[in-house]
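Q: Convert this sequence to structure tokens.
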Amino acid sequence: MTLLETLGIDLPIVQAPMAGVSTPAMAAAVSNAGALGSIGVGATDAAGARRMMAEVRARSGRSLNVNVFCHRPPRADATLEAAWLAQLRPHFERFGASPPVHLQEIYRSFVADDAILAEIVAARPKVVSLHFGLPSAERMRALRDAGIVLIASATTVAEGRAAASAGVHAVVAQGYEAGGHRGVFDPDAEDDCLGTLALTRLLVRQLDVPVIAAGGIMDGAGISAALRLGAAAAQLGTAFIACPESEADAGYRAALMSDAADHTIMTRAISGRPARCLRNGFTALAAGVSARMIPAYPIAYDAGKALHAAAKAAGDSTYGAQWAGQGAPLARRLPAAELIAALASEMR
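A:
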């Protein structure tokens, strides 16, 4: 059986989940157009996940990918967190605000969230994708026993092998070009920064499961190139940010369609994990900041979101998590279904 048959889709295109950007409306439109629509539930709770899955199902009977975050639950460090807030205080004060008194773990990892697991098993989406690592064998078994197809992100061959050994049906080869959070299993380990082309080819040659290429792919030519490398499909995220169905705010959209798209940078200052972002006010303040100074993910994200809210309230939209990949200058303002049609046409 081919990967497209396994996923129940017509086109070798996966819309990246993009928690906080993708929406049920986007996922449904993509799925109805023949590709794999996705939602990210890593930044919500069980009730939110249930609501999002139901909203997609109300709009589409096609395949849906539900993405979860499998990061190691963070260890709070009050001293480190207080020092980080003190460093950010002048930036809050620029906008007439104060930083939070203390930081919190703003959402739980799937590896420790029984409620979200139960909601997903009950809803039985076609696909569940795993980011930041792998859950326990018991959780993997529960998903597979529900008839769910499993895919997992990998940024190295070792991560890809671990995912395949754990029983996933396909591996997403996330190149260093990709926007948003790196899928690294260990954010503190040295990153080899493998690009999409090299990583895809390495995984295709060394794994017995299909590979989905991701990172910097924005059009049909990029998808075709990934397929020529042996990938069974391509995953695109940044390409969908400018769609009207996206949750990206006006400042994010404006930055994406400006010269800022030519300049992306990997930072962990916003959330606590490495992520590729448009260069903006937040990435500028993070210049020269050591990773040791930043609290764990997603505790650091509590501060990041608070600073963005303070700046936005003061009319400054440059402190957001404006995630984008290196292909950002190729972004198009098209409804999701029209974008899928354009991609399919370009592939032909």
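The CA atoms of residues 101 and 171 lie 41 Å apart.
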